[in-house]
Amino acid sequence: LVAQKDIRTDDPKADDVYNIGTVARIKQMLRFPGDNVRILVEGLYRAKINTVFTLDPFFSVEVEEITIPRIREKATKVEALVRSARELFGDYAEVAPKLTPDIMINVISTDNPGDLADYIAQNLPMPFNNKQLVLEELSPCKRLALVNKMLVREIELLRLESDITGKVKEQIDQNQ
Q1: How many CA atoms lie within 13 A of 76 on its CB side?
Q2: What CA–CA distance (Å, rounded) separates 97 from 37?
Q3: Distances, alpha carbon 164 to alpha carbons 96, 155, 160, in Å
Q4: φ/ψ of residue 168, rounded to 5
């Protein structure tokens, strides 16, 4: 699975998709009226497209598994990054709408920095190009640090949105 660089491109070519994605297993496929299909997949590992064989009627490619480097940082640095991510995600959960409790439970129970970064990134409503940056960062600690920065920004945005909404409601109430 690879993301398309620009979703407005109706007929993407090889240059219109990222070359790093995820090899996944189909877990469930649901068909809806009007030729709509929803597919639930489970990511297995990161992979890079080496060769594109055909484009029509679908992409046929050769991929190479990307090996994730071992964590080289000190255990205390890793623990600090994980704690920081959990705390930031807790702050995010306080201001985020519609966040299910099982997501928070998974964040709390994950100790691996790479897995934690991937899980948080998949559950944040951020643009695909940001999610792609997370996918392409192979170092687990650098990936979690990147996600922490994205969490800080998302929390700031949600708080600003809340302030703006509050001021608008206050103004409407005064006008009434």
Answers
A1: 0
A2: 27
A3: 15, 14, 6
A4: -65, -45
